[in-house]
Amino acid sequence: MTRAIILAFLLPLAADAQIGQLALFAMNGSTEVPIGGALDMGKVATGDTVSVRIRLRNTGAGTLNITRFSSDGAQFRFEAPSVPFPIAPGKVQDVLLSVSASTPARYSANLQVTSDVNTIGVMAIATVVVGPLLTVFPVCTGSDGPPPSIDFGSVQSGQLRLCNFYLKNPSAQEMTIATFQVTGSGFQISTGPKAPFKIAAGDTTAFVVTFTPNAAGLFTGALAIETRTYALKGAAFDTPLSKPLLEFDSGPVQSAQQRRLTMRLPAAATAAASGSIFLAFLPDTTLVTDDPAVVFLATGTRSLPFSISKGSTQISINGQTSALFQTGTSVGRIRFTISGITTDGDATTLLTIPASPVSLDTATATRRTGNLDIQLTGFDNTYSAGAMTFTFFDTSGQTLQPGTISADFTQDFRAFFTKTQAGSMFQVRVSFPVTGDTSGIGSVDVQLTNSAGVKLQHLIFQ
After folding, report:
1. Which residues span the domain enclosing 164?
2. pLDDT 10s digits, 148-184
3. How many domains, in total, are found in the chain?
4. Which segments of 267-421 are extended strands (E)?
5. 0.70 cut: is pTM over it?
6. Could you tell me the CATH number of the domain that includes residue 280?
């Protein structure tokens, strides 16, 4: 009876226990390779450091705590967080195991990773050898790292850049090179020995690696020579296109126009390309900073995409052979720039909008009881209008007294232009009070003056 009671208490305790369990893996890229009793770190060149990423995984159901890393070999060392540290169930912690030595020999060490649940021991082995010495000749540059690398610089796409190398055996014994290869798009060994090959003591052998990129971009690769792997890198740029020509339809350029832009290359494109064409307005007056009416008509914006096919000279703008744009109502320059492609010159083009006398879109003269109204709409691209004169005539064409009437609305115009910031469009109504019958007044000459000249408009009263 007593025995049955003891079991009844022990069974629930066993069911509630949560125990962690430590397991070690060597990482091959992102793949976990279980570590058994030994870990061979391969060949290491004297003076180099080789590292293996070790993954600590908790395969149990409870949290475990890593309490110690140890090695009885001075050539081996762990790079790990400060202990103690926990690993939750199913979680991992990566550490680095590195080996380095200056004297050729076969090295080994007993490694231990200790947790509060279990301890794992591993025999680490590394063979340190005298490695070949690599000399890199211009135009490439080399670095011993870490990591060791070779830079091929910047090359035009489709063109070849070659780098010359010497590989020397610095030891007193013949050296066998079993690993000798290049990987990576655009890189290859063009001349040199085929692996495996031997280099006599103190002797050298020459070889050439080429870099031929097939497109613009950054390229990486690797040169593996026995105990050492060199990172290869190079950059490629597209062949510059000839400077695009920006051309406009014929005729004098003025404000308030719709003009046509075409783009072409003076020579056929060596590759397909695409980019954007931008326009901006640079006013010649300080009253405004821009003219928002200067836009491409297709989108009402100031940029359009363009493209060109390999072998063609015609540049397509927004999918069309040309693009319409508005010149606005301001004196100044429209600047066209491009982006997105490399060219052998600056394609920036300026289109000058000259100053012009006031332009009227509509002009009316009407009679009201006791008033004569003159209403004008138009634009003044110089932003300098103000001086106006009015000369009235009877129905037979005779000048009515007092003759020419002058007025200066300069300040009114300036205040209006400064406030609107929307180009130089304006609407003006001038009223003249009249005593008596207005039916005998037949017409009026209105003269508007700005810095570019005089605009004279003859109006018949309605």
Report:
1. 133-237
2. 899 999 998 888 999 999 999 999 999 999 999 999 9
3. 4
4. 273-283, 303-308, 314-317, 323-326, 332-339, 349-353, 359-368, 371-379, 387-394, 405-408
5. no
6. 2.60.40
